[in-house]
């Protein structure tokens, strides 16, 4: 009986540890420097309607809300290069980053997303 509870507890701890994947973040100011110095993979995970209102030059587009988000993203991204993600405010991009990180990508979330980018640029 004790063994059963041990394995239940172990499974619970494993699930909780996995769900709290830490995502690295950078500011929009740091992003601006990176864009001026390197050719980076910048992934915009907003909807097409949001993109119509503006986007960051050189961005690749994949809508986080599409059912096949990962499939679309994986076709456009090089797994051997870091991926920098943004959305409108930074919430969706963290979720998208967790998906990509779980598939082996090195990811960075852009803090404040496109809203912050617009304020500063």
Describe this structure in words.
This protein has helices spanning 2-19, 28-37, 48-52, 69-76, 91-102, 113-120, and strands spanning 24-26, 41-44, 60-61, 83-86, 107-110. It is of the alpha/beta class and 121 residues long. It has one domain (23-120): 3-Layer(aba) Sandwich (Oxidized Rhodanese, domain 1). The chain has a five-stranded parallel beta sheet. The longest helix has 18 residues, at 2-19. The relative contact order is 0.19. Mean pLDDT is 89; it is low at 12-18.
Alpha carbon gap, first and last residue: 62 Å
Catalogue the unreliable spans.
Answer: 12-18
Strand order of the largest sheet: 1-5-4-2-3
Based on secondary structure, the structural category is alpha/beta
Mean pLDDT: 89
Structurally, the number of domains stands at: 1
Q: What is the class in the CATH system? A: Alpha Beta
Spell out the CATH superfamily. Answer: Rhodanese-like domain
- Helicity range: 40-55%
- CATH architecture classification: 3-Layer(aba) Sandwich
